[in-house]
Amino acid sequence: AQKVTQAQTEISVVEKEDVTLDCVYETRDTTYYLFWYKQPPSGELVFLIRRNSFDEQNEISGRYSWNFQKSTSSFNFTITASQVVDSAVYFCALRPYNFGNEKLTFGTGTRLTIIP
Amino acid sequence: DTGVSQDPRHKITKRGQNVTFRCDPISEHNRLYWYRQTLGQGPEFLTYFQNEAQLEKSRLLSDRFSAERPKGSFSTLEIQRTEQGDSAMYLCASSSRRGGISYEQYFGPGTRLTVT
Predict the structure, then answer these.
(1) Cβ contact, residue pair A103, B55, below 8 Å
(2) Given Cys at both, which of A68, B9, B28, B35 links B43, Cβ 3.0 to 4.6 Å?
(3) B96 close to B104: Cβ distance less than 8 angstroms
(4) pLDDT for B36
(5) A94 in reach of chain B (CB within 8 A)
(6) Closest Cβ opposite residue B109 in set A37, A43, A47
């Protein structure tokens, strides 16, 4: 069985502060994909990043960075110099790497509020 | 390049009525997924198609639910004899599969169903 835990239900920070969203996962698969999605108030899930389990390099994209640590089964997401437009619910998700198993397992999400 | 579209965006129905939702995936994507999201939760997988073939169904998809993708393009999700517990956001996603690898799923805006 696969499980994704996002222990932070809600986070509020003042604009321009850095914020880290935690994601811990459980899986018996040796290879898998991890994802982050953003769900703004409009409701549409927006894809942010996909990582393969065999690639533990951290990634940076503008103000966003992701820290993947297989040893602790964590895939954390940091927003640097937060902006009001970053306010949304963020979901971490997991799926097996093997062919034919397409189901994404999502966490319960973290609601991030950036205070101007 | 248009994204995933869903119709209708909102549906209010009385308990016991049948409802049908439509999803149009990104044009070159051969995989299509349905998820359900209730308030405060992450999306939960319902079913997915590769072209017109339905490859996996979740146990969440009771006998009252049926999904089709008759020509491998758009898909419909029908709920018969709706119950109040069916009230949720129904999300559609699509992805492409190239060289044996399935890539990230792109989501539509969702259909919000309210059963009164």
Answers:
(1) no
(2) B35
(3) no
(4) 97
(5) no
(6) A43
Can you tell me the mean pLDDT for A5-22?
Answer: 97
Chain pair A-B, CB pairs under 8 angstroms? 57
Q: CB under 8 Å to B13, separation ≥6 — which residues?
A: B19, B82, B113, B114, B115, B116
Task: Report chain B residues whose CB lies below 8 A from the CB of A50.
Answer: 103-104
State phi, psi for B89 to the nearest 5 degrees: -95, 130
Within its chain, how far is the Cα of B12 from the centroid?
17
- Give the other-Cβ count within 10 Å of A1's Cβ: 6
Helix extents (H) in chain A = none
Which single residue is written with the structure tokens 């927006």? A46
Per-residue pLDDT at A51 exceeds 80: yes
Digit-coded pLDDT (tens) for B7-25: 999 999 999 999 999 999 9
What confidence tens digit (pLDDT) does each residue in A79-99 have?
999 999 999 999 999 998 876
The DSSP symbol for B58 reads -
Per-residue pLDDT, averaged over A30-41, amounts to 93
* Partners of residue B48 in chain A, C-beta under 8 Å: 102-103
> d(Cα B56, Cα A60) in Å, to the nearest integer?
34
